[in-house]
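OP here, attaching both records as promised.
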Amino acid sequence: MRDDAIEIHPKAWGEEHWIVNERYCGKKLVLRQGYRCSVHHHRLKDEVFYVLTGRVLMEVDGAPRVLLPGMKQHIRPGQKHRFTGLEASEIIEFSTHHEEGDSYRDEPSGRVPEPEFTALRRQYGAA
């Protein structure tokens, strides 16, 4: 990969744009409305998510929190987490080095069933 090239990794919930993955990792996550990543955790990885655009439901160890542009969420190793796009969103991830083998998933990523998504948008104030 060229030094100025960004790797794009398609995901069930959108895309990861890998900016760097050396000793530290930087990614832009493009999250589609009505989609979410799996509930998962990392044994080693330490992450901070910073919302650029949209409205994101972040669940950390089962506790929900809505993140708006300019807000951040720290995820420590071992914390189970999941993010859901209440709106189309862009998130910057700052983390320690990413290793796919350090992702322990409890369920798959994908589209939130429509009745559940409608209820989430109503509950968390999305238009």
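Record two, same layout:
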Amino acid sequence: MPPSPSNSEAATVASAARAWRSPEYWLYGTWALLAAGLLLYSQTLSFTEDEGFHLLAAQLIKGGMRPYLDFCFPQTPLNAYWNAFLMRVGGESWRGPHALAALETCAAAILAAQFVLSRLPERSWRVAGALAVALMIGCNTNVVEFGTLGQAYGICLFTSVCAFRLAVAAVGKSGGWLPFASGIFVGAAAASSLLSAGVAPVLLVWIFCFSHAGGRWNKALFFTTGAAIPFLPVFYLALQSPDVVWFNVVKYHVIFREVYWPEPLTHDLKILTGWLSDSQALLMGLLAVFGAFYISKRSTWSSHQRAEFYLCGWMALAIGAELAIAHPTFSRYFCLLVPFAAILALPGLYALGDRVMGPGKPFWPVFFVSLICIASLARDLCIDRSDSNRWQEYEAATRKLLQVTPPGKQFFAEEQMYFLSKRRPPSGMEFSYSHELKLSAIQLAKLHITSIETQKRELTDGTFASAATCSSDLVEDYALNKIFHQKEDMRGCTVYWDWQPPAPGESNR
């Protein structure tokens, strides 16, 4: 007869069983699964063509070059400096920036969910609500696809939510450290991408208007000072060449982004109405509207509790308004407002669940919303990634390109391949979107931009011994099939080599 378990062993088993049934166990498990899923996606499928110049900029900074002054980079530079630091520590690979971005995105989802866990007045919904918010953020298609890249979306999501959490805490405490820290995070978001600049004025007004401990003006001053600190690299570079920095940070976006879009208004209208066919955006938007109405008309919350959730709505509106006037705009930009829309959507979900299922019964409402988010993400990833390139394709093409390029010779390629080859591109080719700008030769030289006409002439004249691209448009625009006599198609990309001069009276162009 087997020995009976001791009292301590029985207590341990009972404790483990209670932990398994605990709602917090499932919440923390969901957070862990989100982190694992985002990390896995970041190392396998995460890719977009626009990412190349961001990683190349970080690599050039690591090599001692300065954004704006040594190469064209029309972005605020903090994310590039951060990725350069990662490359110095972990090597010049896209995997490190991808992994960090995935963790930053996951941290943003967890911080937003933890806000609901600690602040939602309906206590019976706190754990389930935190789980729903985490999944609405972490399973949002735009968040997954673009929050795991070397671009600035991940760091902007993380720093914006951190700034929000610190600002909420700052109004109830005296002293300037909390608003100062909130300012640093909000400044870091804008210094990584100006797409998140709309967060700053909302949080500044919140801290000034809702502070009930300590001096409002002092807190506002601390917040503003903190927000300026992440822009110190921009200020330093601007002292050396103010007009070049102004062009990269402001003028390019205000005037020259339309160059690539012949009908930008039609494009913007299509993007801004895209939520009508996006199940995730439609669900979250409707729930956020219901949430705002519930808080205003039906809830018994205190004025301060209402204000905290209203703040999420104002932040989502401010970011959305800024993104709507970014000309042209893109659906990926709107991932930056997802954490705040998701928090405000939770009271809406509670109001519907309480009405249909009865009070204190969050399981089925949260289950169905989570199921819709997960199923929609799976569907979108299958559709969006079925015919797109991956970093693996570019790596294979870059290996072949280096193999066919004679020592000491230059090659013509996209930013991704310059980054992967660890070779500095010819001056003016660090940012491919700049080639179509119609500026004088003096301005192009000052901004470190090479025109399309110059590139075509250099290709025809044999400046480049080889070429590679994964874009069919580049093949046609630059007539690569006529300039090079040998090529190899490989996994969606094509490598060209064996340049020969055109026959007398003929042109490769």
